[in-house]
From TrEMBL:
InterPro entries: Di-haem_cyt_TM. Keywords: Membrane, Transmembrane, Transmembrane helix. This is Uncharacterized protein. It comes from Glossina austeni (Savannah tsetse fly). GO terms for biological process: respiratory electron transport chain. GO terms for cellular component: membrane. The chain crosses the membrane at residues 12-29. The lineage of its organism: Eukaryota, Metazoa, Ecdysozoa, Arthropoda, Hexapoda.
């Protein structure tokens, strides 16, 4: 009985499988990292918001919030445009 047409996992097949698996693993880790970044930005914004009744302290609080929050320019632009 001869097995001429049976494909065995050779060197090239293993390299292709290994590189494909590593690429998929890299994309999964990258997606998880991006999701974590977005979540951290949202949490930092929520934690930075606080209520102050005094008008003079409100402006100081807003400046403090803009210094602490990532992407503060986007937040400032959205706030200025009435969102």
């Amino acid at each position: 009985m001869e097995f001429r047409n049976v494909e065995r996992p050779g060197r090239i097949n293993m390299v292709v499988a290994e590189s494909t698996g590593l690429s998929i693993l890299y994309l999964v880790f990258r997606a998880v990292r991006k999701i974590k970044e977005k979540f951290d930005n949202f949490i930092s914004l929520v934690c930075a918001i606080r209520y102050i009744a005094d008008v003079n302290l409100v402006f100081n609080s807003v400046n403090h919030t803009f210094r602490d929050v990532k992407k503060e320019r986007l937040l400032r632009t959205l706030h200025a445009n009435g969102v």
